[in-house]
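Both lines are retained for reference:
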Amino acid sequence: MQVISRLIATGLVIGTLAGCALPSSIKPGTTSADQLQQQLGKPTEIHPDPQGGESWDYVYGPEGVQTWRFGIDRARMVGSATQLLTQERLFSVRPGQTTTAQVRALLGKPRDIVVLRGETVWEWRVALAPEYGVFIVRFGPDGIATGINVLRDLTSSDDKDSGP
């Protein structure tokens, strides 16, 4: 009887996951803003675009390792889809140069913000193949990055959750 219960539970989980839309499946140019919201739910954050339209962020934290940004044009169509937490974007943060606003534009909302010894510290959980880790950006009082750190997430050796 316990085997049957497990099979039913597994089938329900698979059925539920199959019905979930993945951000990577959204096709720019063919998906409307209404369809995007219907498939992924309400965005975590909405940012107005100075040229018109807006950007919608979907943050899959604090334990997920994806943050997606969808550009919504004036016609309310998805014009772009960008996974923000890539190694290329992470390592484009330059200590001594990059501001808090630039980091937020690059990586989206951090999973945690703390103040430690006069520095503000932002962190994101990220996929650093083949493992997971925490990407940290430290800022001085002037809002300029003073350093970055990457910490291996020792708790995720068997955890393969990469978001939705």
In short: The longest strand covers residues 119-128. The beta strands are 45-48, 54-59, 67-72, 78-83, 112-116, 119-128, 131-139, 145-152. The chain has four helices and eight strands. Residues 3-19 have pLDDT under 50 and may be disordered.
